[in-house]
Amino acid sequence: MTYERSHELIGRGESRLLIVDVQEKLMPAIPVRESLIANCRKLIEAAKLFGVPVSATEQYAKGLGPTVSQLRELLDGEPIPDKVCFSAAECLGWGTAAEHPDGRFQIVVAGIEAHVCVLQTVLDLLSSGYQVFVPADALASRAKLDWKIALRRLSASGAIITTTESVMFEWCAAAGSPEFKQLSQLVKGS
After folding, report:
1. pLDDT score, position 38
2. 139 in a domain, yes or no?
3. Is the residue at 29 inside a domain?
4. Is residue 134 part of a domain?
5. Which of 52, 128, 156, 163 is the most exposed place for a label (fewest CB within 10 A)?
6. 162 near 131, Cβ under 8 Å?
7. Cα 158 vs. chain centroid, distance in angstroms?
């Protein structure tokens, strides 16, 4: 009998990571900025470990500055689209999940602000047929109420609310591999 993982789990071969608008000039207004950046870093490092493609966006970079250096340095010089629409879905050019050429229909979305750019991006990705996972501890807003309501609305709309560590261990899937040892070090670094 062949074991088949649940389609509700995040697969390294089926997913991608999207970091939305974690930019320099927005950080002073984010009360949980240190943990937000730390968890986004962990997600990027884990994605690289498991071969999961990583994308990032910037909202009006001319006014809000670039992606924070702690994350930018991990993006290996990949171009970061500058957007003016709050949703990042259009500027990414991914189309629908069914049209996506690499078959990656799961998107892990982290970043800021939960109730504006993240919310609108996730809702657009869901309407395009993607399965979307939102690690609550890698998401922030200026006000905690906005973050809480955004999580409720995202969940009610079909996004799967999770945590950074949960995402990383779902990508790993099993202990005993060289990747598991590296993941353990990444988790211990917290």
Report:
1. 96
2. yes
3. yes
4. yes
5. 156
6. no
7. 16
- What does the alpha-carbon distance between residue 113 and residue 117 come to, in Å, rounded to a whole number? 6
How far from each other are the two terminal CA atoms of the chain, in whole angstroms? Answer: 39
Which residues in the chain show pLDDT less than 50? none
What domain range is 118 assigned to? Answer: 15-188
DSSP code at position 118: I
- Number of domain units in the chain: 1
Burial track 163-180 (b if 16+ CB lie within 10 A, e otherwise): ebbbbbbbbbeeeeeebe
Is this model's pTM higher than 0.90 or not?
A: yes
pLDDT of residue 2: 65
Residue 7 falls inside a structural domain: no
Q: At what angle do helices 33-49 and 178-188 cross, to 10 degrees?
A: 170
Active-site amino acid positions = 21, 83, 117
Signed CA dihedral, 39, 42, 48, 52: sign only = negative
Residue 95 pLDDT: 85
